Amino acid sequence: MTMAMASVKGENVTVSAAAAPRMKKLASMLCMKGGNGDGSYLNNSQAQALHARRMLHFLEETLDAMMERSSSDKLFTAADLGCSCGSNSLFIVDVIVRCVSEAYESRGRDAPEFQVFFSDLPSNDFNTLFQLLPPLLAPVAGSLEGCLAAGEGAATATRPYHAAGVPGTFYGRLFPGESIDVFTSTFSLHWLSQVPEEVGDSASPAYNGGRVFVHRATEAVAAAYKRQFQADLARFLRSRAREMKRGGAMFLACLGRSSGDPADQGGAGLLFGTHFQDAWDDLVQEGVVEGEKRDSFNIPVYAPSLQEFRDVVRADGAFAIDRLELVRGGSPLVVDRPDDAAEVGRAMANSCKAVAGVLVDAHIGERRGAQLFERLERRAARHARELVEKMHFFHVVCSLSRHNSIANGCV
Ligand SMILES: C[S@@+](CC[C@H](N)C(=O)[O-])C[C@H]1O[C@@H](n2cnc3c(N)ncnc32)[C@H](O)[C@@H]1O
To answer: Which of 52, 162, 180, 224 could disulfide-link 206, Cβ–Cβ 3.0 to 4.6 Å?
Structure first.
């Protein structure tokens, strides 16, 4: 298998072939915090759930347009990429099943059988996700009625689809050719396949010494992160172009930014580039962590601008862009009492821990990881008001459909 890679010159993106074995290390350890504890993704993904519900109409629109041009096969296949271990993936799948079933019914057809693939990296806590799945309702004609939760999809009491887990990176092939009708991926594509190599290389002009994220970093660091994002997205699209059935569709939502400057990461910058950064510096100053240890840690996340995203989709050429928008989401800090500084501090530390805790622990160990998040909690509590006012995310929301011919290139 050859991986496709994008090279970027100015605003031009071209897709070329290159191997990427360095991805393996991150892909084998990156995951959201599993289980159902305080710092777990399951208990700290309410913000993503809210954002997903706000984007519901985009997803419904994508599915409606797809159903208008697709034939009514007896089997409908869907894959959610970067499903993680919370209930958001189940919500997205419920919407797909409901919309597609309604479209079949409006044509006087019985709903199809649904095969749904939940895909994430092998280190994902699939067990927690699978335990959230309601029991399978064997699909018989008309059985969907009363089975799917109406409207804002709460978890269903029974499950009108076959479910399977697919471990692997979405930056490579996951499925057989032309086998999937619809792909979704929410809040995952901003995770890079790796920290750009030069960012961790002290001899490189793009070395990010002293910092742990691209936010407020040098121009060279920002350019390296941007290149990595665009190369990764190109690989993602190449693979999906092979796997999607003709007439299929894809709905993507990931962190984005409104600024043209890649070193201004907006909400993601506030999450990983301010108090989290300061907490690392605290540990270095207190002698808990060596400076080199901090310098060799970087968060592999990049919030692209709309233009950066669009350039890659266009360069790939396999998909038509049906919709591409930057949507202002809410805050990642879901708190009952926004004026309670301690609660805001805790929410900030838990949000950060749920998504980056596993990487931190792998780098400095659980004990020092816990100290880092304690410092973060304290700092965030001291800046609670500012965080509540300023912390909000932007999301790139994108609907793509499959052209009849795939551009040349191999995956
Ligand atoms: C913030 S969670 C989003 C989960 C869920 N889609 C939601 O909307 O709440 C991001 C997920 O993307 C997954 N992820 C990151 N990089 C990935 C990759 N290269 N391939 C597959 N999954 C990846 C992570 O493991 C994580 O579970």
So the answer is: 224
Neighbour-count burial of 310, counting CB atoms closer than 10 A to its CB (0-12 exposed, 13-18 middle, 19+ buried): middle
Contacts of 95 (CB under 8 A, 6+ apart): 56, 59, 60, 63, 153
Q: pTM for the whole thing?
A: 0.85
Largest Cα–Cα separation, the chain? 70
CA distance 6 to 407: 14
The pLDDT score that the predictor gives to residue 40 is 63
* CA angle (356 as vertex; 182, 273 as ends), nearest 5: 105
Class of domain 37-260+298-331+393-402: alpha beta
CA atoms of 66 and 279, how far apart (whole Å): 47
Locate the domains of the chain by residue range: 37-260+298-331+393-402
Strands 319-328 and 180-186: unpaired
When pLDDT is cut at 50, 70 and 90, the band that residue 408 belongs to is very low
- More reliable by pLDDT, 53 or 142: 53
Pocket residues: Cβ below 6 A from ligand 1? 27, 30-32, 45, 48, 52, 82-84, 86, 88-89, 120-121, 124, 169-171, 186-188, 191, 193, 355
Burial 388-410, CB ≥16 within 10 A → b, else e: beebbbbbbbbbbbbeeebeebe
Q: What percent of the chain has pLDDT over 70?
A: 81
Protein residue closest via CA to atom 20 of ligand 1? 169
Question: Worst-scoring range by mean pLDDT, 7-11, 27-31, 308-312, 320-324?
Answer: 7-11
Centroid of chain to Cα 145? 31
Token look-up 């032309």 returns 178
Residue 184 has pLDDT above 80, yes or no: yes
Measured CA to CA in angstroms, residue 336 lies from 339, 340, 341, 346 at distances of 9, 9, 11, 12
Whole-number Å distance, alpha carbon 105 to ligand 1 midpoint, is 33
Of the pLDDT bands very low, low, confident and very high (cuts 50, 70, 90), residue 410 is very low
**How many Å apart are CA 311 and CA 327, to the nearest integer?**
18
Question: Which numbered atom of ligand 1 lies nearest the CA of 185?
Answer: 6
Torsion (CA) 313, 314, 318, 324 in degrees, nearest 10:
50
Residue nearest to atom 5 of ligand 1 (CA): 83
Per-residue pLDDT tens over the stretch 220-244 = 999 999 999 999 999 999 999 999 9
